[in-house]
Amino acid sequence: QVQVVESGGGLVQTGGSLRLSCAASGSIFSIRAMGWYRQAPGKQRELVATITSGGNTNYADSVKGRFTISRDNAKNTVYLQMNSLKPEDTAVYYCNAVTAISLRNYWGQGTQVTVSS
Question: How far is CA 98 from the centre of its chain?
């Protein structure tokens, strides 16, 4: 079992920055990759960024050059640095962890990010 807990959401003006954190606990040795997804009202949940246990990253085109995903293995924490935020980035952001063998997904409770225009 893996647990993930997000923090760091909030309200920010257009052009501002926020950093989200996701702390993993439990069977962290089994985690293959972690990432961030978001869901805006009336829309499907979409991938924002992922990072593998080896450090490989992947970004949605809409956030490339503005968002950076990183990890601190000592703290079992993944971060999402969000710069140059836009109103269309407004969503609930969810942390995800996927295990290596069973490919089981674990989700956090979500954290709200609101970008005002």
Answer: 13
For the record, the structure tokens of 46 come out as 């979409």
- The string of pLDDT tens digits covering residues 83-117 is 999 999 999 999 999 999 888 999 999 999 999 99
Strand, coil or helix: 30: helix
Which residues are 70's β-sheet partners? 79
Write out pLDDT tens, residues 34-93: 999 999 999 999 999 999 999 999 999 999 999 999 999 899 999 999 999 999 999 999
Closest-CA residue to 22 (of 91, 90, 75): 75
Number of helices and strands in the chain (H, E): 0, 11
* Cα three-residue angle 5-60-75, rounded to 5 degrees: 30
Amino acid at 82: M
Token pair listed for 44: 């499907």
Which residue has tokens 């295990």?
99
